[in-house]
Amino acid sequence: MLALIDDIAAILDDVALMTKVAAKKTAGVLGDDLALNARQVAGVRAERELPVVWAVARGSFLNKAVLVPAALLVSAFLPWIITPLLMAGGLYLCFEGAEKLAHSTSHGEGDATDRETSRESVDPGVDPVALEREKIRGAIRTDFVLSTEIIVIALGTVAQAAMPVRVAVLAGVALLMTVGVYGIVAAIVKLDDLGFYLDKRENVIARASGKMLLLSAPVLMKLLAIAGTIAMFMVGGGILIHGIPALHHWSASLSRLPMGFTLSTLLDIVAGLLAGAFVLGVMRVARRLRSRNPQTREG
């Protein structure tokens, strides 16, 4: 009995340690997930914000209920594919970060999108129920992509562990990320409501706090988007570097120098930025060639 208890304690210790490591490695996706899902709810009527967040959270649980067993089956029967999946996930993170960066610097495209969202939310010709369903479907699709990245990154962390540990870590990361992301998203989307409520109070401190919340909510969204983009380059670049032996040894040697952690992190960010810019360039060239093909056939 004591030996059994000791084995259980050892397994739980491994699960806790690996869950912590996996959560750290998926932090970049988490920041982007927060920003994207909070933005998806923008434009929904105030009284429907929390029901929409809950609907998307349910969809996220269903996404992970499919992805976690699929990842475990892959690790059991096709373990060799984990590294290529990790590299593909890292490259996709870098590409997504580069695309977000390009969009943010291209003639205020993000502002135009925000104005369009606001117009739809107040236009009487737009069916609010249809708009809400569209936003929920879009948010669940986004969550599926980001959840896939989270599960693949977490799977790479526990690829060599025993199957019970893999099951516990992946289930724990999936639950932690879902509850954490949508709990924070619910708090973020209701910040303005809390600010309006406090701003109408007679108490001077409450009114000042309300004004501060109203001013800080859009700033928080922008900071989340910036932090999420940087973290995507850092996490994606780190995955790519660790997947290439020569770069991995170079990064390890940098980490042993004074300020090694900072240098290694900067290397991850630069590698992610370069990889993302390269993939973005290839994708844009491919799109241009594809758009020219019909003209070429007509000529």
Helix content: over 70%
User: How would you spell out the order of helices and strands?
Assistant: HHHHHHHHHHH
* Termini gap: 81 Å
In terms of structural class, how would the helical and strand content be classed? mainly alpha
The 3D shape can be described as globular
Number of domains: 1
What's the total number of strands?
0
Continuous helix count = 11
> How big a fraction of the residues is strand?
under 5%
Oligomer: single chain
Could you tell me the radius of gyration in angstroms? 22 Å
**What kind of sheet is the major sheet?**
none
What attributes does this structure have?
mainly alpha; 299 residues; single chain; 87% helix
Describe the protein's architecture and organization.
With 299 residues, the protein is mostly helical. The protein has one domain. The chain is built from eleven helices and no strands. Helix 4 (82-104) packs across helix 9 (204-243), helix 4 packs across helix 11 and helix 8 (191-199) packs antiparallel against helix 9 (204-243). The longest helix has 40 residues, at 204-243. The protein is globular and about 65 Å long. The N and C termini lie far apart (81 Å). 33% of the residues are buried.
Task: Produce the secondary structure layout.
Blueprint: H1 2-25, H2 27-40, H3 49-77, H4 82-104, H5 109-122, H6 128-157, H7 163-189, H8 191-199, H9 204-243, H10 245-255, H11 260-298
Helix pairs in contact: 1-6, 1-7, 2-6, 2-7, 2-9, 3-6, 3-7, 4-6, 4-9, 4-11, 6-7, 8-9, 9-11, 10-11
